[in-house]
Amino acid sequence: MKRNDQITTIKRIWKRVKRYRPAILLSLFSAAVSVAASLYLPVLTGQAVDQIAGPVQVSFPALFLILLRMGAAALIMAAFQWIMNICNNRIAFNVVKDIREEAFRKLQVLPLSYIDSHPHGDMVSRIIADADQFSDGLLMGFTQFFTSLLTIAGTLVIMVWINPMIALVVILITPLSLFAAGFIAKRTFHMFQKQSEERGRQTALINEVIEGQKVVQAFSREKEILSEFDGINERLEKDSLDATFYSSLTNPVTRFVNALVYAGVGVAGAFSAIRGALSVGSLVSFLSYANQYTKPFNEISGVVTELQNAIACAGRLLELIDSPAEKPDPAKPLSPSFHETGSVSFEKVCFSYVEDKPLIEDFSLEASEGMRIAIVGPTGSGKTTLINLLMRFYDPVNGRICLNGIDTRDMARQDLRASFGMVLQETWLKKGTIRENITMGKPDATDEEVVRAAKASHAHSFILRLKDGYDTVIGSDGGSLSLGQKQLLCISRVMLALPPMLILDEATSSIDTRTERKIQDAFTEMMKGRTSFIVAHRLSTIQSADRILVMNEGHIVEQGTHEQLLLKNGFYAKLYNSQWA
Q1: Considering the entire predicted model, what is its pTM?
Q2: DSSP alpha helices (H): ranges in 118-174?
């Protein structure tokens, strides 16, 4: 991150911090009172020393009053520090809560192209780990930065008031501390940035391996995965050590400079006391102020180091927030009217995932109401891409897709997607009960409707065998359910909602042949009167389709009924016969 980017990031963070002005003002006021009380203590200490400077000069009544004042000052300092810490915690955690919510809301509107092209674990790392690091840096900044600046200003004023010449010694030596802290901080920022990036890669790999552990074990990839993890881990170790080592130099360097300041004050003050220009008590106060003056520089150097890390993490979060969202719905969306079903048309559609590598070119299709359209072809021919375009997970580069004559880009996505029921090869379940997973598309469904849908999909029998039946709680991975059982739940979901149109993308790929035949009968019944798109590799499942589209390399190379395509003895016939070879 360049310096201009750092400044931009800081400005954007400050805009979010400004929302909590009352807490900021109360924190500043508390810091001021706390610092004032802490600066009053050395004055009282000097006065107490002057009261006991000689063996017969002790004034116990005056000393007792000074001790009372010291106790009161200490209590005030502690009370306002407590209030300040509460305010600072509230500011820091609210700002992080806001930026996390912003990032998560952006996730909901990011185009599928972004999700597909970025490691999921890295996005998780930004919202969780980077936000935590940002929170720590912000909290330290608020807690120590204000008090440190006020302490420096206050002690400087008091020292000049007590003895300008000794104060000049302090002022001349102190800039060395600032120079050292600034020099080191500039060179550690990019190290913290690299550390955050490597942490994101590590999280992405761990997330990927946990999700695909069965695949890793099935293909005996443990050694390769361990090797890859070790490589990332070693780079993270190096970047973390570099960042920590160089940032840790700040404190000892500033402490050394501060020790020089203290020694200079002590020597100059001692000569002044010998000449009688300064009392012993005033010298004690001056030494206390010199210590208080230099201490904040150590704290500020630590804060600056931590803020470098926080800004790097905030930059990654803001980068996610700045990612372009998918195109918004039109201001006045059109809504197709359905009697029972709808018609779909693709008009000269062109699409590519990568600019210079076209996938679908000049694709046209008319699907009348109630038609069953089967889409077949080898892997990578564009079958699932057509479904992604139809549901507006992606938009075509050229051409248009119409639903009942309305361009899908003129519709609200919610209306478009509510018109279709989807069963995909990849199942998706949420954490909740079996019932909640089935009613996702129809939350107000009755128990009788849920059971009827489960029976239609042949899921009812295995659900009853579960511990709590329809109230059995499962995780997003389906828990102990098999792939076939998870797919049956997804089919039940569509059976319950019964939308005007259907999309079945390898909907029975994980189901045994006997159950598949029963479900195909249920699908046949459900598809009556509904426009349906069926993507299939097993060609035996789509022989009754009204039209079969044969795709290859993004083009429709053949179309017709099963019998017509076999008579052509072309590409479809080769695909079909290869499954019976």
Answers
A1: 0.66
A2: 120-125, 131-140, 146-162, 164-173
